[in-house]
Amino acid sequence: MKKSSSIFLAKSAIKAPDKEHRRKINFNIGKYNAAVPLGKAQFTDLTKVRELAKNIKWDAIEHLDKHLELFEKQIQERGAKVLWARDAAEALKYVGNICKEKKCKSVVKSKSMVTEEIHLNHFLEEHGIESVETDLGEYIQQLDGEAPYHIVTPAMHKNKEDVAKLFAEKLGTPHDLNPKELTLVAREKLREKYIQAEVGVTGANFIIADIGGVAVTENEGNARLSCAFPKTHIVIVGIEKVIPKMTDLALFWPLLSTFGTGQKVTVYNSIITGPKQATETDGPEEMYVILLDNGRTNLLKNPKTRESLYCIRCGACLNACPVYKNIGGHSYDTTYSGPIGSVITPHLSGMKEYKHLSNASSLCGNCTEVCPVRINIHEILLENRHEAVQSGVGSVTERVAWKVWRLASLNRFIMNSGNGQMKNWIVNRTFRAWTESRSDLDFSQKTFNQLWKERSKA
Question: Across residues 114-119, what is the average pLDDT?
Fold first, then answer.
């Protein structure tokens, strides 16, 4: 089995020079960049809004235990069942048991990154249960046998011709359908699935502590259908998604929409507070909420990485990242790609296996600049690098190389010794791991110290 770092380098080497891939990504991100300023115009003082959002998430994460317990108490009073999952295996076990009890043959599922994280579709298929993605982008990716490419826009790397070709191959439609016609085809196929499914699965954009509610924001209405049509509704959500009060949604829904898609607010916004009540005619008969840890407490216990749990999954940092725009989402070979994925994945899935992601950054700081809740992403990437070295998961060669580099950098005599060609030869031939995926270093003929002395004498 290949190491994750080897897969990352191999995929990156293929995607980085692919001009057609870059053209599609730049086109779609260009549309995003044009829309976002229109969404931002709704805020009188965006800096204060972002600071307020960060403060609310600070409260939510610093008092996570109390907020989660309050959420559990409130939603259980209206008949929902709350299940606590320490890891992906426990969450899948809960889903499997529920589906077995309901004699479930098919599941409809709305867009949810946390279900991608635990590989829910694969688990259900292994147990003979059909799992259908109902978000259009996710549906396209499922038909193509691919994971989501982007946190918000799962099929960002495909254009309308790619989708038309895919539908023709998988669904037998004409090759020349336009986007509107393709959408109608998907709608027709999916409407049948809502009626047939015994269980509906959704994620949650936020879980609201004070009212015991699950907040879902979307543009297609598929999440509403997934949680309302089937008799059983399962919510799978990371524990970090909690916010203290319902009134906080007045801030977070527009903020998520603006930074996620450039909208002032998305088309559908739902708050689900339990299964169908005695006085109601519509809705699921049973509702389960699975609160997932799966490594999140690793981030929580480290004061320097804790603020990465503030993330509201808007995807803005991906759209801003020069590395992501060059290598694409699939090169990361993880559920969460881009800058925020590089921050959290080593803690969710293991520093030893995924430490390389924290080096997949130019450290330009653009990710931090665009984050709606002002997470210091580039600083946490540096913290991850430091943690990897401190925990000893780096190679012996790497540690020796940096010790030599440090020794040389702190010694003026060594720094001033030799000319640029000599230094180029020593570094580019000795530290081959550095130059394998980078251009050779090119030292100046003289150091700044030498040039300054010459100028001072002159």
Answer: 97
Domain covering 42-294: architecture? 3-Layer(aba) Sandwich (3.40)
DSSP letters for 278-312? TT-SSS-SEEEEEEE-TTHHHHHT-TTTGGGGG--
Q: Where are the domains of the chain?
A: 1-36+307-394, 42-294, 396-457
Q: Is the dihedral of CA 243, 248, 251, 254 positive or negative?
A: positive
Mean local confidence (pLDDT), 86-104: 97
For residues 88 and 435, the model is more confident at 88
Average pLDDT over residues 303-327: 96
* Order of strands, sheet of 130-133, starting from the edge strand that comes earlier in the sequence: 81-85, 286-292, 232-238, 199-202, 106-109, 130-133
* In the block, residue with structure tokens 């499914």: 197
Burial zone of 395 (CB within 10 Å; 0-12 exposed, 13-18 middle, 19+ buried)? exposed
Question: Do residues 361 and 381 lie in contact, with contact meaning Cβ atoms separated by under 8 Å?
Answer: yes
CA distance 348 to 330: 18
Tokens 């799978």 locate to: 236
Strands 106-109 and 206-208: unpaired
- The pLDDT, as a whole number, for residue 416 is 87
Q: What is the model's pLDDT at position 87?
A: 97
Task: Return the closest-CA partner of residue 96 out of 201, 213, 193, 225.
Answer: 201
| Cβ atoms within 10 Å of 152's Cβ, excluding its own | 20
Q: How confident is the model at residue 2 (pLDDT cuts 50, 70, 90)?
A: low
Helix, strand, coil % (nearest 5) of the chain? 55, 10, 35
Predicted local distance difference test score (pLDDT) of residue 429? 81
Predicted pLDDT of residue 418: 80
**Is the pLDDT reported for residue 39 higher than 80?**
yes
Beta strand 268-272 pairing with 213-218: antiparallel
Dihedrals phi, psi of 10, to nearest 5 degrees: -65, -45
pTM of the model: 0.91
The Cα 408–Cα 416 span in angstroms is: 10
pLDDT band at 354 (very low <50, low <70, confident <90, very high): very high
